[in-house]
Request: fold
Amino acid sequence: MCSIIIAYQYKIIKNNRNRMTIANHIRRNLFISMIKYTAKQKRSEFMEREVYNLIQEHDSIVIARHKNPDLDAYGSQFGLYYALKARFPEKKIYAIGDTNNQNYFQDMDEVSEEIKSKSLVFVLDTVAKQMLNEEDYLYHKKLVLFDHHQNIPDIEYDYYVRDVDASSTSEIVASFLLSLKIDINQSSARALYMGIVGDTGRFMYNSTTPHTFKIAAILLEKGINIQDIHDQIYLETLDNKRIKAIYFNSIELTKKNVAYRKNTEEFLNEYNLDANFVSRALIGQMAGIQEVPIWANFTYDKNNNKILCELRSRNFQVLEVAKKFGGGGHLYACGCSVDTWDEVDLIIKDLNKLVKKEGK
Reply:
């Protein structure tokens, strides 16, 4: 930010007579910028210290995250879980939630309402009720949110640790632990690294920053085996590869080259596929196509009679479309759930209009 101010101010220097005035103006803006940065840093440190005090005050801690967990939800949850278990062995610490048939760590805990009501509860990687089971946030003594999405919370909370510039909630949790000098052991580091890798697309998405790489480097220093991690995440069966080929060959395009795929109940049943796998794992098949600026995946989920919608783009901010239909996420990667295929068609029209509006 400071370098941008300097570059901008330097361009408006026209002659020697006003250079002193401009220089003073630059120094003042730099000073103001540093004050703002310091104030933000102090607020963050204060918030982290307050949350740490809550951890110390509670004998029971419950760590939750959103339903149908992705790697970041899992990674942030168990990254925090393993670090707190090691730092506070005397406390009862629980990790709760559904497994989505892809649990990379350990069995989830079953926790009664009575225990939750006496516990400090963390909710990670979401601030939206629709992304949670009610029992994950209704019962608590104190509630803390950790998230990096742009959504406005509709959950009552005591503290909200948020950084929309972070690549992932796992990155936020890692920064939180490092700031408070809570040791990140190897188990915690493995979980956090997996979360960061998942939400950055192996460090390829725009959300990846120099700070992301710094955190990843610290986690690697804990002795984690990145080859094993990548194999666990990305190795797949021959059948899965064939399914991806079938999926890709039936992608449709709008007039503005918005790519999309409607995954019906018949398609899932024919190949015995899980809705969450199809929704999250297959959308990447449409990424990286030069002619395609926006791509979307729509999958019927019989478990809740909803259609899962995943929206992605390289350059177009698709978040507003997701929000219009009750969803959220990031500017270029987000999602929502709708009830009918007619609503899906409306989403496709909105995505097409988005490309047309920008003239690309």
About this structure: The chain has three domains: 2-40, 58-233, 238-358. The two ends are 29 Å apart (CA to CA). The longest helix spans residues 19-57.
